[in-house]
UniProtKB/TrEMBL annotation:
Residues 25-475 form the Major facilitator superfamily (MFS) profile domain. This is Major facilitator superfamily (MFS) profile domain-containing protein. It is a multi-pass membrane protein. The keyword Metal-binding does not apply. Belongs to the major facilitator superfamily. Phosphate:H(+) symporter (TC 2.A.1.9) family. Belongs to the major facilitator superfamily. Sugar transporter (TC 2.A.1.1) family. InterPro entries: MFS_dom, MFS_STP/MST-like_plant, MFS_sugar_transport-like, MFS_trans_sf, STP/PLT_plant, Sugar/inositol_transpt, Sugar_transporter_CS. It comes from Cinchona calisaya. The chain crosses the membrane at residues 18-38, 80-99, 111-130, 136-157, 169-187, 199-221, 284-308, 320-342, 349-371, 383-409, 421-442, 448-471. Gene3D superfamilies: MFS general substrate transporter like domains (1.20.1250.20). It is found in: Membrane. PROSITE patterns: MFS, SUGAR_TRANSPORT_2. GO terms for molecular function: symporter activity. The lineage of its organism: Eukaryota, Viridiplantae, Streptophyta, Embryophyta, Tracheophyta. GO terms for cellular component: membrane.
Amino acid sequence: MAGGLAVTSENQPYNGRITWFVVLSSMIAATGGIIFGYDIGISGGVTSMEPFLKKFFPKVYTEMKLDSKISNYCKFDSQLLTSFTSSLYVAGLIASFFASPVTRTFGRKPSILIGGGAFLTGAALGGAAYNIYMLIFGRILLGVGVGFANQSVPLYLSEMAPPQSRGAFNIGFQFCVGIGVLVANLLNYGTEKIKGGWGWRISLAMAAAPATILALGALFLPETPNSLIQNANDHEKAMKMLQRVRGTTDVQAELDDLIKASEISKTVKHPFKNLIQRKYRPQLVMSIALPFFQQVTGINVISFYAPILFRTIGFGESASLMSAVVTGLVGTSLTFLSLLIVDKLGRSSLFKIGGIQMFVSQMMIGAIMAAKLEDHGGMNKTYGLLILILICIYVAGFALSWGPLGWLVTSEIFPLEIRSAAQSVTVSVGFLFTFLVAQTFLDMLCHFKSGIFFFFGGWVAIMTGFVYLLLPETKNVPIERMDQIWREHWFWKKIVGNGQEYDKTERAS
């Protein structure tokens, strides 16, 4: 496998290469991304299936099929329908805070195991559901699984990866999210054609497949060297694990940084309280701003409701599901491209490229829908196809930038003493705004109509400016020496100062 050195600010390079051991471990852990992506894709697909709507949401089904007076933009507007999608994210938000002490106290591996087990149970309930209560309870268990997995998997990947390849390894999580979305869309397209109208059960139950891989695989995962030192204080075991994952016996420089970070971590008794201290202000801002911006890109308009959106502009049921497959394929492909180039181009360049691409495409989609889609009647197929192409361009921009980098940057910038707590803040903020977008989108579509794309496009412009001005480049910076980027940044150095001297009394508070 490829080798290399990560040069640090103190001219003490970390030795190591990408080993098969770390690749296989990371592949198993990244399955947590598949369960997340699968659920995103599957929920949007089944909510456009007529048998599913007829069984659980008969009012929506009636309005869609029979009520010609309802606006194209309002046919799917149902708080109960959006609750089906968004209930998972409320559960995930709450679960992420329970996941933080588990991850910090017992390690990354137990959190991954809990996530896989909870998701497996939720998938079984969803596939067997016979009423709306059973359906939503299954969604809640899925949310618990996603909450634990999203809190622990990005940390696991960032800690296992060699610094010079950390971007590629971490983006493996988002790549797996894309695979999950794509597989779900393909499955929805196939199961929709099953006679008897029970295909949606297969779609929901098949979430058990990636969940089983994650739960069983977690039993055999090695714990990260960072966690071994933090939880067991076993320097010898951590050194052996570090040697194994780096493929070299010369790991002393990295081990010394891990031990130093662990000693600081153990003085912190209340990580959530410490997170609000001035010296952690940049990390706190990023742990809130990046997941917030990731959701107000409008990506979940596409991820959750792509089939519904395509039906809104006049596509049939099968055509809508196939269009979702196309956008899923585009997203997965561009995420893989991001994985290949992120450690060469850096995070900042990809954020800017993707932001401009998303902004332009959303403005054009909004303009076409405003001009060509009335409240009643369909849209010309040529314009419908043009919207599909523009949505693919938008999805490509997100998959290249905010999709993977929103997870990557937030998992690599936190020092060990607040890492688990800060990641919980990141995940919970993400879930909170995912819930808000999922719960309000159909109502917003009904009221804003085509203006919904101008709304999200405006946020894309704001967030692109934010990362350009306030997010320093993290490429090739070792994870335990990440504090240097804030001390050297034109703005953040005014907040944290030119040197971060740890006050023992402050840390012990």
